[in-house]
Each structure stands twice: as structure tokens, then as C-alpha cells.
Amino acid sequence: MEKRGGNGMAWTYTESGPIDAPLLLFVHGGGVGGWMWDRQVEHFRHAHCLVPEWSEQDGTGEDELFTIEKSAEALIRLAERKSAGRPIVAVGFSLGAQIVMQMMSDRPDLLSGAMLGSGSIYPASLARPLVGPLISLFYSLMRSRKFAALQARSLYVPGEQFDTYYAHSLGISRAGLIRTVRESLGYRLPAGFAYSTARLLVTVGEEESGSMRRSARDLAQMRAGSELVVRPGIGHGFSLAQPEAFNALLARWLEEGGLLPRRGSGR
Fold it and tell me: Is residue 173 in some structural domain?
């Protein structure tokens, strides 16, 4: 694990797998941590896996505040430094998917592939001003174990990871949470996304909001050859709700695109 602070933001990451294999970058969503990808890292242990972790604590200066743009900048530098010219595939969930979209827009030639799960591309202009008052009103409740259990259930956090999830929740500051949610709700897909050369897989839960499903459909339609997968019977959290199906889908898509060799085959 290593701390990074080149643009003022505090990042850490974990690294595993053979360093000469294709690079898989797993970017977590808001309200959860890198631990959400534990079962993916275990499954793809024949790849070189990087799992960055960013803090939802509020920084002490303007340059330390979380933004999607600064997060993408930090991960572009990390991916460039670690890839050594090998293919890079980024997998993002929710806010993490928005960060990956920003990476694709800022550096259209960087990624060989991207799997975008439940990432919104349409700003929620009406909801965004309400974020601060609502979080301030319910912040104490949000830190209770019972409320956290309800939230964990809605995100499909497995029982064995609940304590990790709850500890993570307690570490989120009020200001950091407000800023993170506002960032996500205000995100608009940059024009540069159209120039990305990455192969694209988009996923969304069948029971997610209409806006989220529309975002997924429109993302996939922007790029010729993209694949859209709508998972039946689930809401927000495909990789946590159905990890085996998620891993099988990602493995199949990577192998079909020549982005990762099958297990047991030579590189």
C-alpha cells in the first residue's frame, strides 16, 4: 500500500498479481472502499490488479478536496507508472465509474478497455442543492449501526464485510460526504469521452432508477462495438450482489477482446 498526494488528495492503493500481466484497475464507488473488489481481485489473481482507495474526509485546503477530475488525474498517473506499456483495463462502480469516464475523456488513448457499472452521466440539478441540508439533518442517524445495516443491505454488502463497511462509514466526515455526493450528482460526461479508444462494457441493474438505466443505455450507444448488460432482479451493486456472475462476465469480455489471457494459458 502506498500513499499518493501529487495533486493534494490523499490516495492509497493495494497491488497484487504478476507485474508482467495486463493491468486491471478497480475503482470503488462512494460510501464503500477498495474492499468491495476483494472477490474480483481473488478471481483475477492471474492479472496485475491495482485497487486505489480515496478518502471521503474533507481536506484542509482547496487542493485537498475530492473532485472527480483530480481523482482521474491521480489514477492516470498511477496507471501510467504501473503499466510499463502493458494494456490497462479500468473497472469502475457508480462514482468510480464516473472517475473512469473522466480518465477516458482526459486521456482517450490510455485505456485498452473499461467496464462501467452504474455510472450516471446526467446531472441531477434538482436534487443537488438538497444534499447538504439532508445529510446535515440525518448525519447522526447515518452513523448508527442499524441504519448502516439497512444501507449495506441496499448495496448488497455481504455479512462478512459488514464490519468493514460500517467502520468505513464511521470514517466519513459530514463535509466529505456532502462534497462527494454533490460531485457525483453534478457530473456531466465530458466531450472528450467520444475520442476514447477503449473497448467498452456497460452494466446496470434492472431495478435501478430510470435515469441510471438511461445513462447506461446512452453510454453504450455512444460507442460502436460497446456491450450493454442489464442484470435482472438487482439494483445498485452488481459486483457485490452477484460476484460470480460479475467475474464470469468480466472474464469473458476481457478474453474475447484479447485483453486478458485465459487462466492457465501463456501470456
Answer: no
* Number of helical (H) and strand (E) elements in the chain, helices listed first: 10, 7
Contacts for 156 with CB less than 8 Å, ≥ 6 apart: 234, 237, 240, 241
State the Cα–Cα distance between residues 252 and 258, nearest whole angstrom: 10
CATH number of the domain encompassing residue 33: 3.40.50.1820
CA nearest neighbour of 4 among 42, 110, 12 = 12
Q: Where are the beta strands (DSSP E) in the chain?
A: 11-16, 23-27, 48-54, 88-93, 113-117, 199-205, 227-231
The single residue listed with the C-alpha cell 443505455 is 217
Tell me if 81 sits within 8 A of 73, measured CB to CB: no
How far is the C-alpha of 30 from the C-alpha of 17, rounded, in Å?
A: 25
Is beta strand 227-231 parallel, antiparallel or unpaired with respect to 199-205?
Answer: parallel
What is the value of pTM for the model shown?
0.93
Domain presence at residue 246: yes
pLDDT tens for 99-123 read 999 999 999 999 999 999 999 999 9
Taking only the tens place, the pLDDT of each residue in 227-245 is: 999 999 999 999 999 999 9
Determine the Cα–Cα distance for residues 29 and 22; give it in Å rounded to an integer: 23
- Inform me whether the pLDDT recorded for 195 exceeds 80: yes
User: Domain range for residue 44?
Assistant: 11-122+188-256
Three cell numbers written together for 126: 434538482
